[in-house]
Amino acid sequence: MVKQHGWYPYEFQSGTTVAVAGDDYVVVASDTRLTENYSIQSRTHSNVYKMHNNSLLLSTGFLGDVLTLKKTLDGRIKTYEYTHNKPISTPALAQMISIMMYGRRFFPYYTNTIITGLDTDGKGCVYGFDPVGSMTQQLYACEGSAMPLILPILDANILGKNTSKPGQVKRTKEETVKMIKDIYMAACERSVELGDAVVVHTLTKEKGIETDVHPLRKD
Amino acid sequence: MALASVLGFKSNDAFNRSLRCDKNDDTIDELCPKLNVENISQFITLPPYADPAKYLKMVSDNVDRVKIQFLKGTTTLAFKFRNGVIVAVDSRATAGGFIASGEVKKVIEINPYLLGTMAGGAADCAFWERVLARHCRIYELRNKEKISVAAASKILANMVFEYRGMGLSMGTMIVGWDKRGPGLYMVSDDGERISDNLFSVGSGSIYAYSILDAGYKYEMSTIDAIDLARRAIVHAAHRDAASGNIVRIYHMKETGWEKIEEKDTNDYMYQYREDKTMNF
């Protein structure tokens, strides 16, 4: 393809993230392969970032914007804590991200972000954003290069959509982790940009963040 | 440069302008000022290129797999009748050809007697209507009376007019009840603000208009009005690929708005096929 001479500030680096909210937990997962146009830049780069207030930020797209977003957000979370004398709750943080990302409406952060955490009642919550900050609260979310492969599986497994048994299926924390690992293993068979390993974090009130790394195909 | 002047950027020298920008990201982080109509420019960053609308369009065309797709949505409608205003929306958000979400809340509850709908860019509508909500609340506190629908829609239209031609995409309807009775205004991203009895906005509006124009009477009962709104959204969802999933209906009365229902459009379509009844 002929590319016009110009300034292209964005790149697209792969990575797929999944987040599922439960009654008193949140499970998030990311693959660890970072590619750029069919070359692998890293096999150990996770797209999950722990924020100061015990929320988990999942961000894919252009790595430069992802890291800047995380850095700026960290600063603002600390400022909130110092001015309000308490850690910021995840719903408030989601609103803050929405406004911050809209601040770059005319030169967007090229990221597909998800923020997850426990809300003030201890229930798991997942908020998804588009590149300019449109916020939606969801039961589960998936973003990244393999999203078209993974999202339909999540629709069918979690909400029973388009299956012979419609309706939401409630799962425990351990069952959700197992389901997510199976989904990543299935998706990496068919996606070149997914592989190496999947990192699964579980966030609960009692135990905080527990991490589990599961290897995937390296080819 | 229009965008630069809106964002408070003063420069007479074209060569040095990148060095002398006063408003930038650091200011926000130091002070965390509260967002209001007067200082919006402090929040929105000046981009490093001249024409945002043209540049964003170029970036969304898949160069080197970079595809910035914003969530856009779809079919919204509102009409006045003798018992108030009915607002009905679908709930699908598309990003390029992909359905990003089927549960988007396209009716924004500004306050208990004002509603705004969302069509076009989801982030644009959500952000500017949130600024509008804050401004309406301040008006209420300062003047000890509720803001009129005409004033609220005027505020929104004026805010958005400043960014005219820069690529915002917003087609919203402001619905409310004030001392003049029910109010319905359509405000769009080019600063257009018009009032009428019946509006539909979005990619599926053409289909919704045909149902609405066929069955609309000002003297309708509430039940008939809700049925008409529901049919219009369901038929638009059926024919427009970018509309669908759930239909949400609100009724604006003298005492404020009331949410009537939110149900799947697919189920209604099967029901209408079987019934084969139309009142008009």
UniProtKB/TrEMBL annotation, chain A:
Locations listed in the record: Nucleus
One GO CC term, this protein: cytoplasm
Swiss-Prot/TrEMBL GO biological process terms: proteolysis involved in protein catabolic process
Manganese in keyword set: no
InterPro entries: Ntn_hydrolases_N, Proteasome_sua/b, Proteasome_suB-type
Organism superkingdom: Eukaryota
Keyword terms: Cytoplasm, Nucleus, Proteasome
UniProt-recorded name of the protein: Proteasome subunit beta
Species: Rotaria magnacalcarata
Automatic annotation (TrEMBL), chain B:
InterPro entries listed in its UniProt record: Ntn_hydrolases_N, Pept_T1A_subB, Proteasome_bsu_CS, Proteasome_sua/b, Proteasome_suB-type
Active site: 74
Organism: Rotaria magnacalcarata
GO cellular component annotations of the record: cytoplasm; nucleus; proteasome core complex
The keyword Nucleus belongs to this UniProt entry's keyword annotation: yes
A Pfam family the protein falls into: Proteasome
CDD domains: proteasome_beta_type_5
Annotated GO biological process: proteolysis involved in protein catabolic process
Subcellular localization: Cytoplasm; Nucleus
PANTHER family associated with the record: METALLOPROTEASE TLDD, PROTEASOME SUBUNIT BETA
UniProt GO molecular function: threonine-type endopeptidase activity
Family statement drawn from the similarity comment of this UniProt entry: Belongs to the peptidase T1B family.
Subunit description: Component of the proteasome complex.
Catalytic activities: Cleavage of peptide bonds with very broad specificity
The protein's name: Proteasome subunit beta
SUPFAM superfamilies noted in UniProt: N-terminal nucleophile aminohydrolases (Ntn hydrolases) (SSF56235)
Job of this protein: Component of the proteasome, a multicatalytic proteinase complex which is characterized by its ability to cleave peptides with Arg, Phe, Tyr, Leu, and Glu adjacent to the leaving group at neutral or slightly basic pH. The proteasome has an ATP-dependent proteolytic activity.
Keyword annotations from UniProtKB, A to Z: Cytoplasm, Hydrolase, Nucleus, Protease, Proteasome, Threonine protease, Zymogen
